[in-house]
Amino acid sequence: MDNIKNRKIFTICTFLLAIMMCGAVSAAGVNFSSDGKILTITTNNVPSTLQTSATQNMKNGKYGYGLYVTLKVKGKDVQGYNKDITAVAYDNIVKSMTIYESYGDYYYNANETIGTNSAVMKIAGNDGPSMKIVGSGTFQVSYVHGQQILNNAIKTLKYYLNGKLVATVNSTTKMSYKSFHGTYQVVKSVITSKTFGTYYNRTSVITEINYRNANGVKTGMNVAGISHGTEQINNKTITYTGKINMGIIHDPKDVIDGGYTTGSYREVFNSSSAQLAKIVPLDAP
To answer: What is the per-residue pLDDT across 2-41, written as a single tens digit (0 to 9) for each?
Structure first.
C-alpha cells in the first residue's frame, strides 16, 4: 500500500507543480537600479519549514465511490513566503486545488476546479498595501496512459492601484513532458506574457528547463528569457529589449517544486535612452 500511496502522491505533485508554474508574482525584498537599465529582485534565504502530508480513504464522496487522496503543503519556504496548498484527487485524478501564499502585505490566493478536459482558476490578492490583484485562468487537461496532464494555460491578471486599473498581464504557458518509467514529468515550460500598463507595454518570453535523472527526479533547472517593450518617459515613447536570468534555489523540503525553485531575478535592458522607468516587471515569475 505504501508504494501505491507514494506513487499517487508523486502524480499529484507533478500536476500541482504544473499549475504552480503558472502562478503568482512575488517581489518581496525588491532592489533596482537608479536608471532602470539593470533591474534586480533579490529574495530572502531562510530555513524552510515546508511540510507535505497526505491522507487517503476509500469512501463514497463528492465524486462517487472511490479512493480520495488529499495532499497538503504548509509552512514557510526558503524565501520566507508562507504557503498553504491543498489538492484533492479522486481515483488518481486531481479534482480541486487551493493555493495561498503570503509575505508581509503581499498575498495570493487561487482556487481551481478541474474538469475532464479543462480546469478553471480564480485568483485574488494584494501586491503591497494599495495594489489589488484580480484574475482568472484556464488550462487544457488531457490523459496519457491514464495520467492527468496539464498544458496550454491561459491566464489574465489585472492590477488595481487604489481602485484604478493600472496594468493587465495576459500570459500563456506551454509545457513539454517526458515519461520516466511511465510517469510523465515536466521538462520544459515556456511562459509568454504581455503586459499593458498605463505608461508602458511589455512582452516577455521566459523558458524554464528542468534537469532530471533517469528516474525523473529533478536535479536542477535553468530559467532565462527575453523581453521587449515601450515606456513613456518625459512625454516620449522609449523602446527597449531585455535579457532575463533567474537564480535557482535548492530546498529539499519543497516537494511540490521537486526541491528546486526560482529565486533572484535580473533583467538587463538595452535602449537608446539614457534612462528607463524603474518598474519591477509584473510578469516576473
So the answer is: 343 444 454 555 556 555 555 444 444 456 778 889 988 8
Average pLDDT, the chain: 86
- Beta partners for residue 271, in sequence order: none
Distance CA 258, CA 256 (A): 5
Within the chain, how many helices (H) and strands (E) appear?
A: 1, 16
Tell me the sheet residues that pair with 89. 69, 94
Model pTM greater than 0.90? no
Q: Which residues contact 250 (CB under 8 A, 6 or more apart)?
A: 259, 260
The continuous run of DSSP H or E covering 17 comes out as helix 2-20
Q: 95 by DSSP, 3-state: which?
A: strand
HEC states along 99-121?
Answer: EEEEECCEEEEEEEEECCCEEEE
Cell of 99: 493555493
CB 71 within 8 Å of CB 54 = yes
Evaluate whether 159 touches 168 at the Cβ level (below 8 Å): yes
Give every CB contact of residue 57 below 8 A, 6+ residues apart in sequence: 67, 68
